């Protein structure tokens, strides 16, 4: 069958790489793709925002399965358009994707489902938000832009002044545009974060192996939030008993409440959790594979991904047998452009990719790259997801950073402590 992967980041390269390994897949297209997907699939120059053109291409090429990677086209309704055109698509409807498109909507659904999450208030008026903060006693808070902000619209505020500055940057200065028209002010949860991704179709929920993202820009979880500076899988913090609790108290209630609300979920339900002293609490829901979590998780997956996603798309996920996994852990280190998560330059030539590709148990997934004059150049803030699998977390980390050392471009940088929390 022919498969179309929609998107151009590291997650999409990982999906392309895994899908091409399926015996049932004859050809993989990636729209628009990047320099990495270009070497493993056929890139198609269609913007992820161009839904009519994407659907027309899928029909012309007789695509059997469309896999939508990023959140933006999902929130815009691309999955609905594909389904209306008779194309099997892996990804939630526009109505279900609002779980990620609006953090205030997600909070409403969590309250209805009695899912544990941080106490919060929602504001669409700056003066009202300001007055609320002024009246509160000094305590750490988290300010979130309600809409999509590429994973960066979350501000951790340890003081009242930081919180006041935060709502000003989101609602007045509009640092993230319309995403910050409405803000959520919530208590800061203390603990360790984990990412729980599950394939969902109808009432069937198949959790994937656990992972842990590193959102802060710098070592020791310092600096501003990013789209993710690295991840590892599995997360030892999540025991079998804890996973059972997460499924029972979080995943099942959310899938049920979405069905009750006439927004049935089909795709990846991603729960970003904080493991607190009171148990797991939801920080956010996403409606697609995480990036960079997808890279180490998919590296460990042995089950045929194409058949798994097709079964979900065709609402026969309950027919799937248990997933098979490589027991070895995997670590992904994101290499970023100088200036990220702020402003950065594009077009810098990347060297050493061939040298890194020769290393065993290692895969360099491209995120913000493109080809120019026969060379691979930077084309984004997060440029590469250097991923390795090893006999232990420390072994996988060592292999990943050995590959990182092979690769260079002007202004390249990365965190040095990815996966250290697992020890």
UniProtKB/TrEMBL annotation:
One of its GO terms (molecular function) is ATP binding. GO terms for biological process: 'de novo' IMP biosynthetic process; purine nucleobase biosynthetic process. It is an enzyme of class 6 (ligase). Residues 107-314 form the ATP-grasp domain. Keywords: ATP-binding, Ligase, Manganese, Metal-binding, Nucleotide-binding, Purine biosynthesis. It catalyses: 5-phospho-beta-D-ribosylamine + glycine + ATP = N(1)-(5-phospho-beta-D-ribosyl)glycinamide + ADP + phosphate + H(+). Pfam families: GARS_A, GARS_C, GARS_N. Its EC number is 6.3.4.13. Its cofactor is Mn(2+); Mg(2+). It comes from the Bacteria. Pathway: Purine metabolism; IMP biosynthesis via de novo pathway; N(1)-(5-phospho-D-ribosyl)glycinamide from 5-phospho-alpha-D-ribose 1-diphosphate: step 2/2. NCBIfam families: purD. Belongs to the GARS family. This is Phosphoribosylamine--glycine ligase. It comes from Gimesia fumaroli.
């Amino acid at each position: 069958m022919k498969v179309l992967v929609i998107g151009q980041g590291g997650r999409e390269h990982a999906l392309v790489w895994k899908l091409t390994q399926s015996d049932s897949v004859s050809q993989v297209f990636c729209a628009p793709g990047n320099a990495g997907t270009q070497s493993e699939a056929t890139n198609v120059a269609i913007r992820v925002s161009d839904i009519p053109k994407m659907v027309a291409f899928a029909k012309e090429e007789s695509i059997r399965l469309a896999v939508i990677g990023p959140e933006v086209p999902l929130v815009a309704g691309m999955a609905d358009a594909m389904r209306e055109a008779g194309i099997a698509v892996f990804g939630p409807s526009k109505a279900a994707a609002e779980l990620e498109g609006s953090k205030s909507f997600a909070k409403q659904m969590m309250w209805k489902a009695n899912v544990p999450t941080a106490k919060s208030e929602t504001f669409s008026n700056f003066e009202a938000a300001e007055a609320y903060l002024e009246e509160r006693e000094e305590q750490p808070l988290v300010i979130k832009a309600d809409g999509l902000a590429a994973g960066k619209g979350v501000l951790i505020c340890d003081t009242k002044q930081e919180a006041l500055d935060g709502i000003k940057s989101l609602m007045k200065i509009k640092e993230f545009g319309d995403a910050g028209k409405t803000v959520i002010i919530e208590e800061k949860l203390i603990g360790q974060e984990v990412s729980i991704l599950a394939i969902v179709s109808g009432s069937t929920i198949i959790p994937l192996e656990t992972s842990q993202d590193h959102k802060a820009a710098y070592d020791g979880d310092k600096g501003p939030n990013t789209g993710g500076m690295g991840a590892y899988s599995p997360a030892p913090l999540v025991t079998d008993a804890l996973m059972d609790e997460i499924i029972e108290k979080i995943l099942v209630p959310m899938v049920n409440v979405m069905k009750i609300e006439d927004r049935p979920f089909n795709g990846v339900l991603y729960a970003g959790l904080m493991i607190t002293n009171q148990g797991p609490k939801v920080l956010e829901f996403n409606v697609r594979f995480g990036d960079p979590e997808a890279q180490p998780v998919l590296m460990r997956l042995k089950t045929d991904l194409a058949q798994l996603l097709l079964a979900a798309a065709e609402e026969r996920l309950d027919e799937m047998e248990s997933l098979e996994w490589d027991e070895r852990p995997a670590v992904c280190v994101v290499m970023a452009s100088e200036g990220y998560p702020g402003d950065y330059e594009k077009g810098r030539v990347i060297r050493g990719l061939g040298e890194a590709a020769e290393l065993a148990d290692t895969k360099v997934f491209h995120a913000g790259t493109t080809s120019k004059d026969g060379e691979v150049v930077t084309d984004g803030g997060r440029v590469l997801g250097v991923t390795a699998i090893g006999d232990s977390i420390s072994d996988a980390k060592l292999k990943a950073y050995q590959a990182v050392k092979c690769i260079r471009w002007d202004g390249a940088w990365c965190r040095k402590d990815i996966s250290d929390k697992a020890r």
